Structure formats: structure tokens, C-alpha cells
Amino acid sequence: MRISTRAFIVFLLLPGLAAAFHPCAAADPEEKPVAELISQTRRAVAAIASSDRNGDSSGVGSGFFVSPENFLITNLHVIGEGRPFTITLPDGKVLEPEEIVGVDRDADLVAIKVKGKAPAGLSLGDSSMVRTGQPVLTVGNPLGLNNSVSRGVIAEERELEGRSMIQVAMPIEPGNSGSPLVDQQGRVIGVIAIKSASSLGFAVPSNALKRLLKNKRPMKIARWLRIGSLDSRMWKVATSGGSWRQRAGRLIASGTGSGFGGRMVCLSTLPETMKTFEISVDVKLEEESGAAGLVFHGGSSGKHYGFYPTNGALRLTRFLGPTLFEWTVLQTVPSDSYHPGDWNNIKVRIEDSRIICSVNGDEVIDLEDKALGTGKAGLCKFRTPAAEFRRFKIGPEIPPVSLDETERANVRELASRLDPRSPPQMEIVDKLANFGAPVIKELKARATELEKEAFRIKHLAGRVHQRIIERKLAGLLKGGEDNFDLVHATLLVSSVDNPELEADPYLELLKRFTIELKDALDGVTDPRKRLQGLINYFTVELGFRGSRMEYYNRANSYLNEVIDDREGLPISLSILFIELGSRAGLKVEGIGVPRHFIVRHKPEKEKATLIDVFDDCKIISLEDASRLSGTVLDSDALVVSSRRGILERMIRNLVNVSTIERDVQSLLRYLDLLLLVRNDAAHERWQRAVLRARTGQPAGAAEDLDWLIEHHPEGVDMNAVESLRRNLQNQGY
Prior knowledge:
This protein has 733 residues and is α+β, with helices and mostly antiparallel strands. The protein has five domains: 34-222, Thrombin, subunit H (Beta Barrel), CATH 2.40.10; 235-395, Sandwich (Jelly Rolls); 405-477; 486-645, C8orf32 fold (Roll); 680-730, no CATH class. The radius of gyration is 31 Å and the shape is globular. The termini are far apart.
């Protein structure tokens, strides 16, 4: 049968016939009543509460489940990278995340698999078929108001910051992020991501979500939640219930355990092989009604000794199991040496069956007990109040953390010489620095005793602490531009703002990382495969990532917190990458470009490779490096940064942050460090001179000005220098 051309055209124009005739055509599902759409969507929507880097709440967003796998979909910025988050259904049920199914940072999307049975998910539509004026709705948690419905229309499809986005005209508020954008057939055609105005927002097209789900890269939630997670190489949680996390060198125990009295136990992986040994830790209780401290001779069966402060006293106990009937209080003693509400050092010495317990250097318990043999040492907490721990140590003998009486008397005598009209005299600072770190605690104690002198004493302690750090840093830098431990130096810089920070545990951790990496690369000779092995270990095994959510957080320039949290800036991550690679025998070097920092792998007789450590150690081209730096680069512009140069750049980051925050005291500390590293930094010396003159340090300002006058550097207004120097001379400096 033949059909004429004219007849065929008419045929196609008849309503519905053309679609029916075409073998690939299919009609859209019927539109659903609005009430049905709302009910269906609400069942699939969840509230997502996330936390910031410090573990505090950062707000509530939205997410929704999609079929057929019933993954939870939301914006990446809702959960944050590496942050803990909670998922709550409309009926109040809380779901636990099991796996990060996939992440698309460019599209701001993440897919999550939850434990147990998930609600029925929504189906995905084709976002390429959306049209201007099309009715849509969303269900989310705007301003924390759960299950709120918003209706509107598609306003337009637009390019926004290089991304294809769907512009919607409908009420969008904070908390709507991650909500599904649903058409009249109940299909998801977008994910609400941006609030632009009171009745205007943008959604990520659903086709971007389809691509994410098609290219899944599953990651167990334990590997994703790097922020505050315990290092399994160092600690093992021995009881259920409660929470253990670490932040900036501290361990924090919160909640209650499942054992008697809410007991929570976390054991160190360090062995107890000595007949005679000591363990110690600094502990601070949230409330004195709580209890927390040391355990020793511990095991998985719930057996252990415990020594801890409780209700203002010190207690030694023995647990032979998890119940009340297996618990024995060996001794409870009060002590004037214990300071409620403050950090207290507690220590236990084991000599065969003899147990000697002390607090802040004073012995409080000495008894014999042969009930338990050997086992692990660690930490414990009881009851509801939280507790913090720091400086956990174990060894044959642990040096005292406090000064002896003679030293304390000397410290206090030196502190009494302070001139109340000026900053601490450098002669006194230098003498006090000879006592080492324990002098800081003594000075702070003295400040508490003498309220009128508290500010002056604390300031002195800070200056002494800084001088100790400066001495250590100067000692490291004696080796020249490249002959010093960059990680150690960077940790010292971090400790200027963190007096409690100890570098040794992090240096030991880096050694363990190096051993593991060498084992992984054992037998691999191909340079490219060795580089890939380093990248996999750094990004997958250790979980380091760029800090996109809190880029300007000062923690990103503190190397200890970068190691703890597994995230940082391009330069801080590059330091760790370079050190690990170099120690494993790879030739990796840092390249400082404008606005960014990258790494180059340059094996002998092989083509060099550029790596953006910040972006999951992505291998990049020279054009990519140009884009990141905002300027056109050629191979000659890729200058290798010396170790001193890298350290200088880290400090400059802190200088810039403190300048933006207008934190004068921090700025002065960082300028001191910068000039220690780069003595000829003329602009910064002039900056420090001005700040010293404004903060009551005329003698120090005069020294800086004399240096500038002697060297007459370019780029510094010498007229202003000489004018300020004359003013100080008129004041007798």
C-alpha cells in the first residue's frame, strides 16, 4: 500500500497519530493531582542536619530518596565533606548513613546509601525536556520547618558559573537546599541548590544526577567521616555506646557507654610489654560530677584497672567484667593537688603488682594488687558529662610535666621582676625559656593566683612559649634552604597558636604512614605506577582532601589539624604529599604559582607530571595550572620552591588571615616567625615596626626601624620610616 506525500503530512498532523505511528515514541504519564504529588514527595524527603569542622551544628538542609536503589540525594554543601551528619524522616525516625555512593563536586551533588530499609524513592525525569512556565513543586525544610511545600514555575534554563542550572520562580529559603524539584507527573527534574532572592532560586538538572548515579564510586561512611575520627592505628574503642573523636591533638569522649555507670573505654594500640612502666594523660571534665581518666591492664572482656578524678576526688578501681558486681573500688582519696574545672595530669606507675598513682606530680595512692595480669592501656569515661584528654603517654618512665619546687620559686621570682609599664623584658623571657615547656603551666597558675597581674603573667607565658618555639625553629633552619624537616618546622609554626600541641606524636604518625606507603610500593619500579600508588595511598587510604567548605579556616594552616581532619589548603596538603613521597623514594617537589600551589613528580629520564593535591591529587596539564593561577604559565614559570620558601608561604597565609580578621596579637606573632624564616622581608619588617610602636613595644619598633634605615630596601617608604624613628627618639628610644 502506498501513501502520497500530502496524505502522509496530514497523517502526521492528526492529534496523537504521529506519536502512535512512530515506534520509539511514548506519551508522558498523566498529570497527578496536586495533593497526590505532595503526599508522594513528602514520604521521600528527609531532613539532614550537618556539623562544621569543630563538631558544632551548621544547620539543617534537605534530601530525598530516588528509585530504584532508594539512594538519598542532596547537595554536597548540605552534608559537607568529611563532616558527620544525621538523616531524619518525617515520622522522626533517624537513619544512619552506610556509604557515600558518589560525589559530583562541580554539580554540588552527593548520593548516599543508608542502613536498613529506606522509604520509597521518587523517579527521575529528563531535565532536557523542561520548558519555561512549567508548573513545579518542592518539599523541604526551609528555616528548619520540616516538610514545607513550595509551588512555582520554571523561569528559565541558564548558565551559572559555568554550570547548566534550572531557574525557578518559587519561594526558596535556607534549608531548601537538597530538596527535589518535581514536575506534574511526580518526577524529579532537578535538585534545589541555590537561593537567589525571596522568590527565586536555582536547581541542578536531574540529568546531572543521572550521570552521578551511572558513574558511582562507593566509599564506606567510616572512610568519608574523616573529621574528628579516631586514628585506628593509635586507638581502638573497646566498649559500645558514646562517642570518641579527636580534634587538634585532643581526644573527646561524650555520651554514655553501655557498661555499668555509662562506662566508655578506648584502648591504645601501644603494647605493654614492660614489667615496670608508666602511663599518663592530661584530663579535663566538662562537669566534676563526671569521671574520666586512665585504664591499664585492659582487655576486650571488660577487665581493666581505672584511675580517674570523680566528684573532686581521685579513685582507683578494678573491673573484672561489665557489671556492678564485678567492680571494686580499691581506694578513693581527696587531693589539694587536683584542680576542678581545669586540666589535670594524672599518672600511674606499675611495678609488678604495685600501683602508684599521682595527680599533677603529687603521689596520692600506693598499693599492691595481683588480681589482673597484663593488658592494654588507654582512656575511660563514666556517667554523662563529656571529658577531654591530651598528651597520652606510655613508657618505662615519663618525665614530670611540672616544675620542682626550686624551679617554681625561680620562675615566680623572675616573673616578679616584670616592669608593669612595658612588655616582658627579653632577658627574663630568655631565662624562663631555659626551663622548657613546663614553665608555661607554672606561669599560668601564678596568673590565676594574682588576678591583678593575670594579664601580664599570661602575656609573659605567651612570649616565653613563642621564644621556645622560635629557638626550636631557628635550630631546624640552620641546615639551609632545603636541609631541614619541613613537617616538623610546620608543626612548630602551628604550635605558636596552640601551646598544647606536641609535634612528636604527629612525626611518629608520619613515620608510620611512610612505612605503610613503602610496603605498598614494594616491588613497583615503574615511576608512573609508583606515583599512582602514592596518590592512592594519600587520597584513598589516608583520605586527605581539599577543604572546600571552610577554605579560609585557620585550621587549614595548622598542620596538626590538617592531619587530624584529613583536609587542608593546597600548600598544607602538598607539604604532606611531598614529604611522604620523598621518604618513599619518589622525586616530588613543590611549585608555587599565583593563587595556588601544585606538586611536580620528576623522575629521572621520564616526563614530569603536575599534580593538584588539593583536587584529589588530580594530574593536570600546564594549561590547567595556568587556569588555577589566573595567569598564562610556561614551563619556565614552574619554579621549584625550597623548603624554606614553602614554610614562608605557609606563614604568609596566617599573616593574611590575621590581617583580614584584624587580630593584631596574632599578626605580630606571625610576623615574628616570618622574619625568623626570611630576615630580609622588608615590607613585613616595616609592618611589624608600626604595630610594635602602636602596641607599647617602642624598643622593638626602634630595632626594626634601625634595620630598615641601615639596609634601605626598595619598596618601603623611607620618609615614613625615618619620621617614626624620630618620634621614638623623642620618647627616649
